[in-house]
Give the backbone structure.
Amino acid sequence: MYKCLKCGKEFADMPKDQVRCPYCAYRVVLKARSEVTKKIKAR
Ligand SMILES: [Zn+2]
């Protein structure tokens, strides 16, 4: 999950090559952990 710093909305989908909020197009987002992260492979 990611969280926008401007509008505060959380979203799961974000292209890796384009970091921005899908709602307000703000370019600063945080990685927000909602529970336990599962099935996430960092490569
Ligand atoms: Zn936003």
User: Anything to note?
Assistant: The longest strand covers residues 2-4.
